[in-house]
Specification:
Elements (H helix, E strand, L loop, with lengths): L4 H5 L8 E6 L2 E5 L5 E9 L2 E10 L6 H6 L12 H21 L4 H4 L4 E2 L7 E2 L1 E6 L10 H6 L3 H4 L4 H13 L3 H22 L13 H12 E12 L1 H4 L4 H9 L3 E8 L13 E7 L8 E7 L9 E3 L1 H7 L26 H11 L2 H8 L9 H4 L13 E2 L2 E2 H7 L1
Parallel strand pairs: 7-8, 9-11
Antiparallel strand pairs: 1-2, 2-3, 3-4, 5-6, 8-10, 9-10, 11-12, 13-14
Helix pairs in contact: 7-8
Length: 404
């Protein structure tokens, strides 16, 4: 919180010096004799530095940032020229970055939406956020980036060949290499901020896609009872990296509707026909009796195929493995079949094991999408039939299974 002049004047000396923050790294250091000094914290190369801006009251509330920006010369105060120059360089780089990236402050841009800006949490928010966020991976994709700038580099058959061609740009002093370096750094910085800023605790894992950050930010920008309706890849409901977020929405009763579509070149001609996307309508806090859901839609007109799923029902199906018993029939790679040669006891034990919570936990460490292929199943730990004869006290594991 920004300090007021009266508050600074009221600060008294103590046995040891102490600091009172003004915000954005700026603070007042109060010494035992009662004298006060403005200081600014900043970082260079990951190391924290401090810049002395001048004593209070000679340097007033309006002066510290003016000194830091180089607009006011601190002639009468002890400021090391090297420190002042280093801080001004950081400040200038930050200003240039702000102009280049056009950072958005939601509270300043929409001043009537929030109140008590200095509170620890947002108070207020939008009634609803609706949109179609970008579906792009944050990590810089060399092929896509060079396709519009140097198609010959994008068309290189091997990554090693592409790397050599990029290195050749550097050796030739081609400005394109500098642009590529900036783009790569921007992507790396975006990933770092997404993962470490604390703003995206649920959807910043794995190979982050921009749409997932938009989803989590949208839920933070609406009022507690507000609504969010976004068009995103269906991975928001099926990918492992989104499981914490979607589980909270679905099993918490916050999901209003989920309409899942298969592209089939009908909606987006330039996107693969099998690509799946969805319209998800939810709220951060508001609850609904059931979510209206439809899957594998090929037309908006088919939305009447939707059916309700309650939070309790979502809790039952939020599993990676759902094992059951089927009659003898053909099955593809996406439906792994285990044949126990008609042994009913062993079959029942296997179904119980495959549907258990510990097994599901292990499986979640392996599966990445919504498809459970056989090559994944054959890697998983399954309790062998002989182990059910092991005793635990007076009963065997098989006895305990029957009792449960």
């Amino acid at each position: 919180m920004a300090l007021k002049d009266a508050e600074i004047r009221a600060l008294k000396g103590r046995e040891t010096s102490y600091k009172v923050a003004d915000g954005k790294g700026l603070y007042v250091e109060v010494f035992p004799n009662g004298s006060k000094l403005w200081r600014q914290k900043y970082r260079i190369g990951g190391k924290e530095k401090r810049l002395a801006l001048g004593a209070y009251p000679e340097v007033t509330l309006a002066d510290p940032f003016a000194i830091a920006r180089g607009k006011l010369v601190p002639e009468a105060f002890r400021v090391k020229p090297a420190e002042a120059e280093a801080f001004r360089a950081i400040w200038q780089a930050a200003r240039e970055l702000m102009e280049e990236e056009r950072f958005l402050n939601w509270q300043i841009t929409f001043p009537g939406v929030w109140k008590d800006w200095q509170a620890g949490t947002r108070e207020g928010g939008f009634d609803a956020v609706v949109g179609n966020p970008p579906w792009d991976r944050i990590k810089l994709q060399q092929v896509e980036w060079f396709a519009a700038r140097r198609p010959d580099i994008a068309k290189a058959q091997k990554a090693s060949d592409r790397g050599k061609m990029i290195a050749a740009l550097k050796e030739a002093g081609d400005p394109l290499f500098e642009d590529y370096g900036k783009a790569d750094k921007r992507a790396a910085d975006t990933l770092r901020i997404a993962r470490k800023s604390g703003h995206y605790p649920l959807l910043s894992g794995g190979d982050i896609n921009l749409y997932s950050l938009f989803v989590e930010r949208a839920h933070a920008l609406v009022k507690p009872g507000g609504m969010v309706g976004l068009l995103t890849p269906s991975g928001i409901a099926s990918d492992l990296s989104a499981s914490k977020f979607f589980r909270r929405q679905a099993t918490g009763g916050h999901l209003k509707a989920l309409y899942d579509f298969e592209n089939k070149k009908v909606f987006f001609p330039d996107v693969h026909a099998s690509f799946k996307f969805c319209a998800m309508i939810a709220s951060p806090s508001r609850k609904f009796p059931a979510a209206n859901c439809a899957f594998y839609l090929h037309s908006v007109a088919n939305a009447d195929q939707a059916f309700p799923i309650t939070a309790a029902e979502f809790a039952k199906v939020m599993r990676s493995m759902i094992a059951g018993i089927i009659p003898a029939c053909g099955a593809g790679n996406s439906l792994p079949v285990l044949d126990f040669q008609g042994n009913a006891g062993v079959t029942a034990q296997a179904v119980a094991c495959l549907n258990s919570t510990p097994f599901d936990f292990v499986l979640r460490q392996k599966v990445q999408g919504q498809n459970l292929n056989w090559f994944i199943v054959e890697q998983l730990p399954v309790i062998p039939p002989a182990a059910y004869a092991r005793t635990f006290g007076p009963k065997t594991a098989a006895d305990k299974r029957r009792l449960s």
